[in-house]
Amino acid sequence: MAEREKPHGASGLPVGNAPTAPTAPTTPTAPTAPTTPTAPTVAELREVNERLLIAGLREQELAAALEAERAQLAAVLAGMADAVLVVDREGRLVRTNTAYTRMFGDADAPLASQDAHGQLFPPDETPQARAGRGEAFRLEFTLTAGDGSLRWFEANG
Asked: N or C: which end of the chain has fewer CB within 10 A?
């Protein structure tokens, strides 16, 4: 039997038996520079537009509901016979009702509330200041009317 000759490559060595070169150790590659953002597609723009439209409609519904609640609160306050003074955390006027204006006059005018002995309350003990701090209280006080007479009131907070 004759021995078969293996095919030879360009180097003259038999194919399949070519010597392998030693491989160099791999080194980490440097991070690539960030790519420039691509323009959004029409489908992406439509999706964002739809979400914005839905959010805008929700905001309009919330605004309408808030306005309805404000109108209801104004109607309740206007119909009350008791004077109502609403203050913020610093004791500054936020809202009054018609009964308050009828009893005390201009809502912006300072109230010189006095204790049972005719002494002015210290600024941090007035009904407005105590209500602004969120205290629960019941306070009887007097105010001098325009004709000089004393009027008795009770504040609850």
From this structure: N
